[in-house]
Structure formats: C-alpha cells, structure tokens
Amino acid sequence: MATLLYRLGRASFRRRKAVGVLWLVLLAAVGTAALTLRGETGNNFTMPGTESQRAIDALQHEFPEASGATGVIVVSAPAGRTLQDPTVANQVVGLVKEAGALPGVLAAVDPYQAKAFSPDMRTALINVQFKERADQITEDEKDAFLTSGVAAEQAGFQVEHGGEILGAPPEVGGTEAIGVVIALIVLLVTLGSLVAAGMTMLNALIGVGAGMAGLFALSGVIELTSTAPVLALMLGLAVGIDYSLFITSRHRQNLVEGLEPEEAAGRAVGTAGSAVLFAGVTVIIALAGLSVVNIPFLTVMGLAAAGTVAVAVLVALTLLPALLGFAGLRILPRKLRGAGRHEASAVAAATKEGFGFRWARMVIKLRVPVIIVGILGLGALTLPAPDMRLALPAPGSSAEGSPARLAADVITERFGPGFNGRLALIVSSDSPETTAAAAGQVTTALRGTPNLLLVTPPNPSGDKKTMLLGLIPKDGPTSKSTENLVHEVRERTHNLGGADVSLTGQTAIGIDVSEKLSDAMPIYLLLVVGLSVLLLMLVFRSILVPVKAALGFLLTVGATFGITVFIFQQGHLADLVGLESPGPLVSFLPILLIGILFGLAMDYEVFLVSRMREDFVHGETPYHAVVSGTGHGARVVTAAALIMTSVFAGFVLIEDPIIKSMGFALAIGVAIDAFIVRMTIVPAVMSLLGRGAWWIPRWLDKVLPDVDIEGEKLRKQIDAPPPASSTADPEPVRV
Predict the structure, then answer these.
(1) CA angle 624-626-631, nearest 5°?
(2) pLDDT-derived band of residue 341, with 50, 70 and 90 as boundaries?
(3) What CA–CA distance (Å, rounded) separates 217 from 224?
(4) What residues have CB less than 8 Å from 616, skipping those under 6 apart?
(5) Do residues 465 and 459 make contact, with C-beta atoms less than 8 angstroms apart?
(6) Which range in 112-116, 281-285, 303-307, 715-719 is most confidently predicted, on average pLDDT?
(7) Cα(365)–Cα(627) distance, rounded to whole angstroms?
(8) What are the φ and ψ backbone dihedral angles of 403, each rounded to 5 degrees?
(9) Is 51-166 a domain of CATH 3.30.210.10?
(10) Looking at the DSSP assignment, which residues form a beta bridge with residue 71?
(11) H/E element holding 467?
(12) Quick check: 298 and 161 in contact, CB under 8 A?
C-alpha cells in the first residue's frame, strides 16, 4: 500500500496543474448539482417495526386528515378578562377562522367545542391540522402560520405559536467559524509558516466543500435529517484538517532532511498517507456500521458523515501533493528554506530534545503511578454515565426565545407540562361494533393510571372501524414518569376487547427510538471494539497492542458519557456551555459518539504507535522506541487534537441543544483520548509491556496480510541500489 501511495503522491506532485484543474472542475460540478438538486432536510425520526410507527401508519390509512403535522396557537385573554367574555370569544373564534384559512392547513379546531381551556379560563389552545408532514411544509406556509393572530395581539391578546411544524433544521452560522479560526492559529504555531498553514486549511476546506455539496446534491433523492449535514460538516472539517496536517508535516520533515520536493511529497504520501488512509477507512467503517442498527435516520446520518470523511481522505492523498508542488520550499519556515544537509541534521538533533521526548521520558519514569491515576481518574469521570437517559427533542428543549419554546412555556404554565407531550391511542378491528366496544374497554382500563391526566372521547374514522383517543400525561414528554406511563398504557390496553390497540405520538416515538437504540448500543460497541482489535492486529502484528488500544477506547467513551451526562442531563456547570434547559440526551448521541470516537481514537493510536513499531523493527530497544514514537508524534498529534477539539467546540456555540451536545461530547472525547489515553497512558503501558507488546503467534503472523502501514517495504525499495548493468561478454554456450 505504501508503495502505491508513494507513486500516487509523486504523480500528483508532477502533474499538479492537471490535478488542481480536475478538483476545481469536480467542485464546480457537485456545487452546481447541489444548487439544482438540493432537497429539504427534516426531523422525521421514523422507526420501522415499533408500535408507535405501526400506529402512525394506521393513522395515515384510516385518518388521512390527521396524518399531517400539527401546530398549536396559544391565545391568552387580556389581563382581567376571561374566555367567557363575549368580546374575547369573538376574537378567539375569529383567530380560529383565520388559522383554518392559512395555506397548507386542513382545519383549525375551535377551543370552545374542544373545551381546550386552561383552569383559570384565560388561555385557549387552537389545534391546527396541516395537510403535509412537518418536513414537507414550505417556508411560506410556516411563515403564514407564525404571523397569524396579529389582530388579536393588537387587541391586547397574547398569541404564541408552537407544534410539530416549528421543528427547524439547526442553522450553521458564523459562531462555529471560531473553531476554524483557532484551528488556523494552531496550524500557524505548529508549522511556523503562513503558506503551510493556509495550504493545509485550503485543502481541508476544498474537501469539506466537495463532500457537503455532494451530500446536498443527494438530498433531492435521499431523505436527510436536519442533523446529518451538520454532523458531516463537523467531521469533514476536523478530519480534513488533521489528515492534511499529518501529510504536510511528514513532507516538511523530508525536505529538511535534504530530499527533493517531489521525492519528499511521494514519501510523505507513502508513509503518513498510509496512516491517513487506514485512519480514514477506520472512521468510515465505524460510521457506515451504524446501518447494522437498522434505523433509517441513523443509517443516513452515518453514511452522510462517512461520505464526507471519504472525500477528505481522497483530497489529502491527491490534491494535497499537488498543492505541495505549487508551494515548493515555501512550505518550510523561512529560516529553513536554504538549509543544507548539515543544518538539517542539526535541526533534527535539536528536535529530539523537544517537549514530546521529555514528556515521554517522564511518563515512562512514572509509568505505574501514571497508569493507576489515569485509569482511576477516567473511571471517576464515568460514574454519572449509568444515570444516562435518552429522548428525542421536546418543544421545551428548544432555544430560549424561539416561538416553539415560548408556546411550550405558556402551555406548561397554564395547562401543565403534559399538554406538550400528547399521546394518541389507535383502536382498530374488522367491524365497527368490535372497535366501539374495545374503545369503551380501553377508556375503562385506563382509569386510575398513574400520571395520566386526561383521556379524550373516542373519535371514529369514516368507516368506524378505527377510533382515535387522545391521552394527556401529567408530566412533560421527556420525564421518567411519562416514559413509565407509555409502558403502563401499553400493558393495560394490549389487544383489549379483541381489537388492535397501539400507542403513538411524538413522545411515544421518542421513547421507542431511545429504547431501540439503547438495546442496540452494546451490540454496536462490541462490533466496534472487535473491529479495532482486528484492524490494529493487522497493522501492528501484535496481540497486546490492539487489546490495549480497545481498553483505552472504552475508558475514553465511559469518561465522555459521564461528563456529558453530568452537564447536559444533570445540569451541573450548564452555564459554561450556554445550556438553558438540562434534560435527557438526544437518543442517537451515545451510539453516534461511539462510532465517531472509535475512528478518531484509532487515528491517534496509529500515528503514535506506528512510529514506535517502526523504530523497534529497525533495532531500537523497547524503551527508545516508545520515547522516539511519542517524541516524534507528540507535536503533530497535539496540534491535530487541538484542531479537532476546536472545530467540534465551535459547534457548542449553536443554540440547538442537539448540535450543542454533539459538539461538546465530541470535543471532550477527542481531548480525553488524545491527551490522557494516547499521549499519557499508552506510552506508560507500552514501556511496561516492553518486547511483549510486539508478540504475536507465528501462525497468526503468517495468516495476516502485510499492509505495510509504516512503509517498511517502500523504504527498502527506495534504499536498494539499482541493479548493475553487465558489460562483460556473455558466457559461451557449451555443446
């Protein structure tokens, strides 16, 4: 593999103009496709095979008028007046008529007929039924809904708008660019050259641009959740910068050692590029592996992010060598551009006394305390993790000041938190009589159910074979008591009266999604850990190194979960991240975090340990191999981790709680894995294992293919003298 990438790097360097033009044309093509073919993103978290999804499917068939998205208008009478006043009633009825005539609206329910009043008779709920799903409603229809009720507001009424239709995709604005700016500063400090830093960032941005454009071009035919493009952007930026940094750093090292620019680029792609390819494939496999959970929206998220990472790898291996060719010696700091071999040797010698080498020696000297403190410390951070609760976003978790949040707050205050998490019970059978009887039995069975505030009268379908009952919990949609209520209702009404009874609603869907993901998480974690052991065994020809890497990954995941639960669920230090309403973590965060952190953790493991193995194979003692590997890799790995942490942390500034929690968890996970696990615990454990770290049974060594990740075969091929041409007379043929 290293030899093939070496040739690719030299070819891209030599034909840099053609490669540059090719990428520009490709970028323009996918950009045009994105502009012309782009579809809408949505928040359609479907879950095939669950009871809530079966109920939704039944609604679409039997109650097509109730299968679209819902909105709610919360209208409160002026101070000192109630909804019983005739002038107030006229104003509310007028608002009902206005809402019913809005574009895209099927009907608006009169609160006087539905008795949708607050106990103090000052606030009414106008439920608005739309024709289409929430992700199919146009911006014009949404704007018309949000601007309804102007006349009532002018008359002194308080009018707020909420409901499913206000679930909007998170906006990626200028605040997350702070992470990119910090990444550029880290590149400048690390590389010491504006040209090198700018070129590395440019390469990453081109890869992100191509990946995101391709993703949006596909959104016209593939249904994307609103978080999928943001996740792809996060990962594309982070790994794009990191992968470019690794190859650029090796290229600069080759130049300082006196190699010609083309040869330096070829060797950089052949060695560091091999590690980049392996690391990228690892991330892609982990993300694509989310499809085994068999949840459509999670599969799309994983594949979208995997595609962006694949583009980042391709750009790093092809476009970057071309850009290195354009940069020439300007990729080096000014003082090194004219350095000869003697000066280069002096620079290399000075580098050995850098911080990374001193840090490695200190860690090895204190390896036993370092291992104990590291494991116990990360174990302590894991303690809050068992209390983790998962849910889909609720109206009350929207950003403070947003229309959905204002409406949810008024509903909670005037009606109770359960009105923000209504449930729908579907009763159906082959005959109207059986359905009616079963609906009566269901109503009776639900009396006295803990945490159930209200059961609405049955609403029959056109053929009366299906009935719809509304359930109002006492507590909010993400509370533990509401989760218990869903299970209690299902247990009490299962196949009652010979009819098919199923429970749905956004709250029930969220609970089903969370439970299915929780059940799948151990399986996926086992898959990821097993994959890491096999891949690292293939790369490092060792048994203990992969096991150590997998255990370190488990420490990282546990500590990351613990800190995220501590802040985002329990609310401690929430102000530090701008979190307004602590609550359960979004359902797909843990399993998504496992997949992403696995790939990134293996990145740093490969970049550090491959140098250790390289030096050990070439005759260094285990001690010197660990010091050399850590010392040479510390500067680049530190810079890469700071860049990735900065990029992820930039997304914490977004108000959307889902993106905020994802950005925080990824940022803290990368920091823990890079600085505590890989840079501290790994050198300590490797030095403790000594030669045993590289032991592998002979039979297994023969079975495993040699991927040559550190470029050993490439080095032998380059260093081998050319075959001597023979000028002697040929030996005479004997008869």
Answers:
(1) 95
(2) very low
(3) 11
(4) 622, 625, 694
(5) no
(6) 303-307
(7) 11
(8) -55, -45
(9) no
(10) 128, 163
(11) strand 466-473
(12) no
Angle at 232 (CA atoms; ends 229, 233), nearest 5 degrees: 85
Residue 290 neighbours by CB distance under 10 Å: 25
* CATH of the domain spanning 352-394+518-706, picked from 3.40.50.300, 1.20.1270.10, 1.20.1640.10, 3.10.20.740: 1.20.1640.10
Contact 686, 366 (CB under 8 A): no
- Residue 347 confidence (pLDDT) above 60: no
Rg (C-alpha) for the chain, rounded Å, is 31
Q: Find out whether 309 and 235 touch, Cβ atoms under 8 Å.
A: yes
| pLDDT at position 399 over 70 | no
Q: Do domains 1-43+178-332 and 352-394+518-706 have the same CATH topology?
A: yes
Give Cβ neighbours of residue 301 (< 8 Å, ≥ 6 apart): 225, 227, 228, 231, 290, 588, 592
Pairing of strands 466-473, 452-455: antiparallel
Pairing of strands 466-473, 459-460: antiparallel
Count helices and strands (H / E) in the chain.
26, 11
HSE value, Cβ hemisphere, 13 Å, CA-based, for 194: 0
Decide: 438 and 200 in contact? Cβ < 8 Å: no
Q: Which pLDDT value is given to residue 31?
A: 87
Instruction: Measure the CA–CA gap between 229 and 13, rounded to whole angstroms.
Output: 32
For tokens 């008359």, what's the residue?
A: 155
Query: pLDDT for 351-377, tens place per residue?
Result: 445 788 999 999 999 999 999 999 999
Please measure the distance between the N-terminal and C-terminal CA atoms of the chain and give it in whole angstroms: 48
In the block, tokens 């550190």 appear at 710
What residues does each domain of the chain span? 1-43+178-332, 51-166, 352-394+518-706, 422-504
| Tens-place pLDDT, residues 219-244 | 777 777 777 787 788 788 888 888 88
Separation of alpha carbons 248 and 134, rounded Å: 46
Secondary structure class of 453 (helix, strand, coil): strand
Q: How far is CA 585 from CA 391, 511, 547, 665, in A?
A: 6, 12, 30, 11
Q: 3-state SS of 361-372?
A: HHHHHCHHHHHH
- The residue behind tokens 């439970």 is 515
If pLDDT is split at 50, 70 and 90, which confidence band does 731 have?
Answer: very low
What is the second-level CATH architecture of the domain 422-504?
A: 2-Layer Sandwich (3.30)
Q: How far apart are CA 644 and CA 640, in angstroms?
A: 6
pLDDT at residue 335 tops 50: yes
**Residue 67's pLDDT is what?**
65
Q: CA 417, CA 413: separation in Å to the nearest integer?
A: 8
Both structure tokens of 447: 């009396």
Q: What CATH code is assigned to 1-43+178-332?
A: 1.20.1640.10
Predicted local distance difference test score (pLDDT) of residue 381: 95
Instruction: Tell whether the model's pLDDT for residue 709 goes beyond 70.
Output: no
Nearest to 662 by CA among 677, 644, 649, 675: 649
**Helix, strand, or coil here: 406?**
helix
Residue 602: both structure tokens together: 């293996």
Q: If you average pLDDT over residues 430-444, what whole number do you get? A: 88
Give the DSSP letter of residue 421: S
DSSP readout, 652-663? Answer: GGSS-HHHHHHH
166's CB contacts (< 8 A; 6+ apart) are 71, 142, 146, 398, 402, 403, 404
Amino acid identity of residue 491, one-letter, is E
Nearest to 404 by CA among 165, 63, 572: 165
Which tokens is 338 given? 């004219």
- Biggest alpha carbon distance in the chain? 127
To which H or E segment does residue 123 belong?
Answer: strand 123-130
Alpha-carbon torsion (330, 334, 337, 342), positive or negative: negative
Residues 584-602 have pLDDT tens digits of 888 888 888 888 888 778 7
Phi, psi of 613 (to 5 degrees): -65, -40
